[in-house]
Amino acid sequence: MSSIEWNEETFSKFAYLGDPRVRGSKVAYVLTKVNVKEDKYESTIVVEDLETGARSFIENASMPRISPDDKKLAFIRSNEEKKESEIWVADLGTLSAKKVLSAKNIRSVQWNDDSRRLLVVGFKRRDDEDFVFDDDVPVWFDNMGFLDGEKTTFWILDTESEEILEEFEKPRFSSGIWHGDTIVVNVPHREGSKPALFKFWDIYLWKDCEEEKLFERVSFEAVDSDGKTILLRGKREKKFMSEHDWLYLWDGELKPVYEGPLDTGSAKLDNGKVYFTVPDAGRVNLYLWDGEAKPIIVGDHWIMGFDVHDGRVALLIETATRLRELYLYDGELKQLTDYNGPIFEKLKTFEPRPFRFKSKDLEIDGWYIKPELKDDEKAPVIVFVHGGPKGMYGHYFKYEMQLMASKGYYVLFVNPRGSDGYDEDFALRVLERTGLEDFEDIMTGIEEFLKLEPQADRERVGITGISYGGFMTNWAVTQSDLFKAGISENGISYWLTSHAFSDIGLWYDVEVIGANPLENENYRKLSPLFYAKNVKAPLLLIHSLEDYRCPLDQSLMFYNVLRDMGKEAYIAIFKRGAHGHSIRGKPKHRAKRYKLFVEFFERKLKKYEEGFDVEEILKS
User: Is the N end or the C end of the chain the one with fewer CB atoms within 10 Å?
Assistant: First the structure.
């Protein structure tokens, strides 16, 4: 009998790949494994020689950056004792390495074309031991904590002398890349008393302590350069942050590379060509622009990261039934790694079945997973709602879906209006109408699914989601009696406090819910909190204390009001972890969350138990 089976700890068996880099005959990436015993993740940089097939390893390392001459590797190593990050440089021939810089906060590292200097972008804060102070908004940011007067720092580091040759500061949320011997700096544009975050940028060229403004109040930012041309991602000007991001080149003149109809993801410039990812109806594909844009790697998959050099692309590909592995594309697609193959040979995975349906005036994509059932057996259903609303479901590996399918549940998920992967009009239709037509899309999808699968039990339908999916779970149990159980994670219950409390509320909520929050009726009309009396289904609220995107007040308010009304509600507050704690929390944290997730639906949709004894559950 296999020692590997689907449960709350199966995630710890997998290898996780990230941050692929390619230069010449070398490919580097980060391999992360879960250490359950010590409750931590262990990251190793793997360097593969494409000519010999040899592999080299650097332990306790991340952010691999191969030098342009293909001879050196810069990387980051965490010094937990000193609470610092260290930049190391290794010789790729011998892998002997030296530390070239220690700093408290490092966000990015990039080689100059001379293969000697590094551009190091980090940040500094006041760091008073007793209090934080700010005179700008936001005061905090998810996964970053209190900003405490934060400034972005830029250092030019000479790796030979190990000295900082030049340094300067810019406002928080700035970023930069090399452009020859010049640095292109993206700075959030200010409008009145606050920065126009996520919407408008001012772009500068910086060299030898002098700067030149290239663009003012544009909705794109510089993402790559070959020393002559700058690659820009975004738009010339956005009305809404939820609009699609397109691509442009600038060499003294602004030239469009891609302007729709779909959105774009990461993008790289290589020998005058542009490679970029495109979300498309549940897939993420790779496109190439060489005068015209065309897809080059297309399939039922998500490309989860890539790098390119001289037409050779190193990329990570993930499917609905397999975690990401490393591939190489040089005209043909070749798989280089198979870390998780032996694990998946021991596990049954379930391929989602696509279906498409009409909801009001739109065609909507949906998928469902059918568990193993006897001919006359009926099974409960769990409806998953993605984050966003400009998120997207489709052909990628979702751990909870495979876990619940293995437990005998139908799993249903759709891309309602507002989702990414479709035209811009589709994405914008949810603005100021969140919870209205998008919720109808989900409900219509459920009905269409039930017609397709007579073994799905409409009397045992649960719903769950994180972030916007958590909001939609809260909304669903107040708007419909169809749902017999719900798990809401890091969701919204009251849009007004979200506007005032969330790190992005001042920008995002006024777009999604509407302007003038103190006067706009939408902030009450679209808030689940004010419909709490309608709730009949038992609800488990899961939230993380350090979530500054959808802060804890959102679940805590809803929980208190529900309990005050005598409703069946429970709340699990994880003491650590940001908005993405469900996949980035420590291993024991994640295992406990998965255990709560499985047991709540087991007890409410299969065993029909009253109560939810968490001590008994965690003991088991």
Answer: N
Q: Which of 580, 518, 570 minimizes the C-alpha distance to 549?
A: 580
Taking only the tens place, the pLDDT of each residue in 361-401 is 999 999 999 999 999 999 999 999 999 999 999 999 999 99
Residue 30 CA to residue 11 CA, distance in Å, equals 17
How many C-alpha atoms does 214 have within 13 Å on its Cβ side?
Answer: 24
pTM of the model: 0.97
Q: How far is residue 117 CA from its own chain's centroid?
A: 31
Q: Would strands 230-235 and 175-179 be described as parallel, antiparallel, or unpaired?
A: unpaired
Angle of the 468-479 helix axis to the 437-452 helix axis, nearest 10: 80
Q: Are strands 353-359 and 312-318 parallel, antiparallel or unpaired?
A: unpaired
Q: What is the CA radius of gyration of the chain?
A: 25
Q: What does the angle CA 525 – CA 439 – CA 482 come to, to the nearest 5 degrees? A: 100
Give residue-wise pLDDT tens across range 490-537.
Answer: 999 999 999 999 999 999 999 999 999 999 999 999 999 999 999 999
- Specify the length of the chain in residues: 620
- Residue 44 burial (10 A CB sphere; 0-12, 13-18, 19+): middle
